[in-house]
């Protein structure tokens, strides 16, 4: 059984509890981070903490981020649960008021802090080896997708709808252009070898993996354009892929029924996956 962390305490997962009045439960009033673990070490921990701080501040959740303290908790959980490869999930909500109320609780209500680990194989991935099939859906999320909140109902619905259609994941389309995947950033590689991914705005999550992968691309002297693209453009691309902390760089081989490239993971996506894993594994803490 896992040991999890709740508000200052390490407890067995079946003894962990939060109030039914917690605002994460009633209002999805919470932010989260998912940090990957390789060789028992955290990948890009400080990138995740920097984004956590921004999400909290955008929503005015009164939690003082102490990076060293959070690092110690992450490490303690990784060690207690013997995680060599997998993820650490961190969630901070605005806290539990004494009743359900749309108004935010008083400033002295403490945020709820929950962390748990998930052991899973990340480097060896059947999906990355065969490539993902994607179907597109309208992006019906709220328009502050740059804040990493736990309002994940719509992404969860489209991922299920994609599975019903025999696909692996969903890409979301706003005003005719792809924003991002259900839980990842989206990319295409044009026929002249340019990597295209949507520019940062309120319409997408500013992926920590995205930033690291674009750095790898620059080091490989690959051309990158940060701009929106349509599903039609993606369907005629040479390659496509997604990035996230949970799947790193993951090739895409089909979009709305159109085969991408030769229908197998493309060389640029494969190379970026290797380089990303090597560089970030070496820098893990
Ligand atoms: N999801 N876009 C969305 C909508 C996401 O939910 C995620 C991450 C990303 C990629 O961000 P990063 O590279 O920082 O992981 C982009 C996480 C992994 C999740 O919800 O499980």
TrEMBL record:
Organism: Thalassospira mesophila
Cofactor section: pyridoxal 5'-phosphate
GO molecular function: L-isoleucine-2-oxoglutarate transaminase activity; L-leucine-2-oxoglutarate transaminase activity; L-valine-2-oxoglutarate transaminase activity
Domain of life: Bacteria
Stored PANTHER family: AMINO-ACID AMINOTRANSFERASE, AMINODEOXYCHORISMATE LYASE
Presence of the UniProt keyword Cytoplasm in the record: no
Gene3D superfamilies per record: 3.30.470.10, D-amino Acid Aminotransferase, subunit A, domain 2
The protein's role, per its UniProt record: Acts on leucine, isoleucine and valine.
Family: Belongs to the class-IV pyridoxal-phosphate-dependent aminotransferase family.
Functional pathway: Amino-acid biosynthesis; L-isoleucine biosynthesis; L-isoleucine from 2-oxobutanoate: step 4/4; Amino-acid biosynthesis; L-valine biosynthesis; L-valine from pyruvate: step 4/4; Amino-acid biosynthesis; L-leucine biosynthesis; L-leucine from 3-methyl-2-oxobutanoate: step 4/4
Record's keyword terms, sorted: Amino-acid biosynthesis, Aminotransferase, Branched-chain amino acid biosynthesis, Pyridoxal phosphate, Transferase
Coiled coil: none
CDD domains associated with the record: D-AAT_like (cd01558)
Pfam families: Aminotran_4
Keyword Transmembrane helix: no
SUPFAM superfamilies: D-aminoacid aminotransferase-like PLP-dependent enzymes
NCBIfam families tied to this protein: PRK06680.1
GO biological process, one term: branched-chain amino acid biosynthetic process
Name of the protein: Probable branched-chain-amino-acid aminotransferase
GO cellular component, one term: cytosol
Protein EC: 2.6.1.42
